[in-house]
Amino acid sequence: MIGYKLTTTQKEDIQGKEYAPYQAFNCVQDINNIWFTFLTDEDKLILVNSNYKWLLDCPQAEYVPPIPPPFPPTI
């Protein structure tokens, strides 16, 4: 999955902020501790005319999800 790479500062600036009614940024960290946000084509159209237009200039990269913790053993 391709996403927009963010610095920690950029992530802290947008995390949880609404960019449209009922739509907010939710950043996730990959296995390499790189922060990402993911945008749909609709999101990109919204951001073009917003204070968050700078996100569209962030580098795009492959998101590698972290390995989930093992399930606890069942008894």
Annotation field: number of helices: 2
- Portion of residues in beta strands equals 15-25%
**Level of helix content?**
10-25%
Model regions low in confidence, pLDDT < 50 over at least 5 residues: none
Secondary-structure-derived class: alpha+beta
> What's the end-to-end separation, in Å?
36 Å
Number of strands: 6
Radius of gyration: 15 Å
Task: State the domain count.
Answer: 1
Report the sheet with the most strands, covering strand number, pairing sense and barrel closure.
4 strands, antiparallel
Strand order of the largest sheet: 4-5-1-6
- Overall pLDDT: 94
Tell me what you see in this structure.
The chain has 75 residues and is of the alpha+beta class. The protein has one domain. The strands form two sheets. The protein has a four-stranded antiparallel β-sheet. The protein has a two-stranded antiparallel ribbon with strand order 2-3. A hairpin with a 5-residue loop joins strand 4 and strand 5. The longest helix is centred in the middle third of the chain and has 8 residues. The termini are far apart. The mean pLDDT is 94.
Keywords:
75 residues; alpha+beta; 4-stranded antiparallel beta sheet; two-stranded antiparallel ribbon; 2 helices; 6 strands; 20% helix; 24% strand
